[in-house]
Structure to design on (806 residues):
């Protein structure tokens, strides 16, 4: 949405509270011809009852046909067009492991790799070494690398992947990747793309030189490759654009990280859905926007496990009355994207949305499911970033446009 | 769609095959109150069965309320926003008669006209002389015009209309038309709009001077007028933007021409629908995108002949199983625009779309028709150019956006 338009329309009224309940990867397709989706198959008496009083529809996370990663998909739900608001891979990687990236940091994604005696890459993933080895190598490098004037952080991610963060003054991140992307070539130099990034590029080169020596006797991970150099984006923040005090409640670091990026307060990691809902109840008076994230619907979609995905949806449905008991003005129930069990991956398929508000014009469709949403008042394939604007309207947050 | 976004998301996976079956002018409106459209009235058991497994919707070829010509309407279906990607009239005219316009050519549409003794236009269409006379005059001019350094081609189009092509080096086509558009005025000089077009404008002026003398004793076609000077556009091409190997199968030159413009391979003109489908089967292994064009649905719409249009749709329905037998990943059945029998012309009405894909989430609507499409998951009045992006997604062609 157009943040300038939103800001210009905001009033200073006390407002109703908004809950955005995201079941990750909620959207699905049938496993077999004529079959149901997970949401359609799930027994969801509470959502169905709420649907009767709500508007339904199907949002499109990015653009037609484009499959979103988790970061961009959530930005869309938060009202940020993900094509316009791009997060660098290095920063996303930091968000995913709960590393607290600072404004001046340069972050990058790293791979341990294997090089031959001439320094040519022969395995870009170092035989997919297990995470334990990456943990040890990150500690080794953290201990031994020494570059005056900056701090260098190394953190294991998963298997051969790690996060590199360089903290110092005057660093910019327009730096070319060192990964040649093919075997048989030497790692590329970390070249600055603009003059503001030259200092950081030199530091990265010095880091690579030291790392090469430190790793020389390791096998198979005797070298590293760096990609996705990035800094924290400088975006309009949620509280400022929407005049909202937002809280994020999520079990996994990536989702807390994206929420933090847009300026939300973030609760520590909950251990269960019940705990997430307890946090919501506990913080109800202190905030006026709540993002509650449910992870496992996506995980079971990735596993291709439809019965387990159905069961997770039913667990969330059973908890829904606790949200309604708080008397919110707006409740949005949706996913960030589709993760069809039949595809075992994220996909581009539009995502079902249930939009309840005290002031909505109900569609009177007594069921929450992909096909039911086709008939809903929100429409089909509307941009995800429209939802925040609509939520603000129903929370009584906008002035009239013109006289 | 955003070609940069599409290109940035392409993977290098082997992909499923896509068939785009276009029934020209398919969309319609009822002939009388409470009546059916041609597509609704047609008996289409094969399309209806496929609809049950597909997504339906209605595309908008250009913009709300805008009636498309055939060229722009097809560009939209090929994923090129026709408002952004404009083809000059001279080039379209050449495409329509199968003239092989080259990169450096300047093409224009011509009219034979009648002038009085002072050289003032008294009939802009020379009494609508029949095509045979235009054929003879084009041959006469081709034989007698002589301009050093360039080749000049004249080709009859229909009645008083012809195509002019000038072939040479360093020619540009920003040239003002010579048609005064009103009677009682002399033909205008062919003025260059920019300095790059001065050479071509001088050649056009010399051509007009020679033609005036050659035609002086003809009656009523004793002069000519030129409009729509244009060169071949320099656009991103289909194979490059989409990573697809495309083939066009069409009976009429215009459609083969537009396909050629975007970089498709083009089959020679077929003589029947059966022959078009034989070409599709024969070339199935060699390409991964197939554009199959059906002309007569439009022709009968222009004639206002609803029963004949219904019959053409039924003929295509009977051939549909031959496409499905090839096991495509994606089949799109639609029109380029509407040609309502009740209006006897192209129109702006949204066009029904049936989008079948192995990975689609079926709407489970058991009928293909304008009103049935209102309830479909593609939505109503979405831009035609979205279809290509969606086809690429369902053919497994895209990487994830972000992490």
């Amino acid at each position: 949405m157009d943040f300038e338009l939103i800001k210009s329309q905001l009033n200073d009224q006390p407002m109703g509270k908004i809950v955005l309940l995201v079941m990750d990867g909620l959207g699905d397709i049938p496993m077999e011809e004529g079959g149901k989706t997970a949401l359609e198959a799930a027994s969801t008496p509470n959502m169905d009852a709420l649907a009767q009083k709500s508007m339904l529809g199907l949002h499109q996370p990015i653009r037609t046909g484009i499959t979103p990663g988790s970061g961009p998909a959530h930005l869309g739900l938060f009202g940020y067009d993900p094509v316009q608001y791009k997060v660098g891979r290095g920063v996303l990687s930091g968000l995913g492991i709960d590393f607290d990236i600072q404004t001046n940091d340069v972050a990058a994604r790293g791979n341990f790799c294997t090089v031959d005696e001439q320094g040519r890459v022969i395995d870009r993933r170092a035989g997919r070494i297990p995470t334990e080895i990456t943990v040890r190598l990150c500690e080794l490098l953290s201990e031994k690398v020494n570059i005056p004037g900056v701090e260098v952080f190394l953190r294991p991610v998963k298997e051969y992947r790690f996060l590199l963060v360089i903290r110092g003054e005057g660093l910019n991140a327009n730096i070319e990747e060192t990964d040649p992307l093919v075997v048989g070539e030497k790692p590329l130099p970390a070249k600055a793309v603009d003059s503001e990034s030259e200092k950081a590029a030199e530091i990265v080169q010095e880091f690579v030189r030291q790392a090469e020596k430190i790793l020389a006797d390791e096998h198979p991970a005797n070298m590293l490759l760096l990609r996705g150099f990035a800094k924290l984006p400088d975006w309009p923040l949620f509280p400022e654009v929407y005049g909202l005090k937002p809280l994020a409640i999520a079990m996994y670091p990536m989702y807390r990280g994206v929420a933090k990026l847009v300026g939300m307060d973030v609760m520590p990691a909950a251990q269960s859905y019940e705990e997430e809902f307890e946090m919501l109840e506990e913080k109800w008076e202190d905030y006026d926007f709540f993002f509650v994230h449910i992870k496992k619907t996506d995980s079971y979609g990735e596993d291709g496990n439809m019965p387990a995905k159905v069961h997770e949806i039913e667990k969330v449905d059973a908890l829904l009355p606790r949200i309604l008991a708080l008397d919110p003005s707006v409740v949005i129930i949706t996913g960030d994207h589709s993760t069809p069990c039949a595809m075992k991956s994220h996909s581009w398929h539009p995502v079902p949305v249930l939009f309840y508000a005290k002031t909505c014009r109900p569609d009177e469709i007594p069921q929450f499911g992909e096909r039911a949403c086709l008939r809903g008042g929100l429409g089909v394939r509307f941009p995800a970033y429209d939802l925040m604007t609509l939520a603000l309207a129903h929370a009584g947050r906008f002035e009239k446009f013109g006289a």
Remarks:
- The radius of gyration of chain B is 23 Å.
- Residues 306-324 of chain B form the longest helix (19 residues).
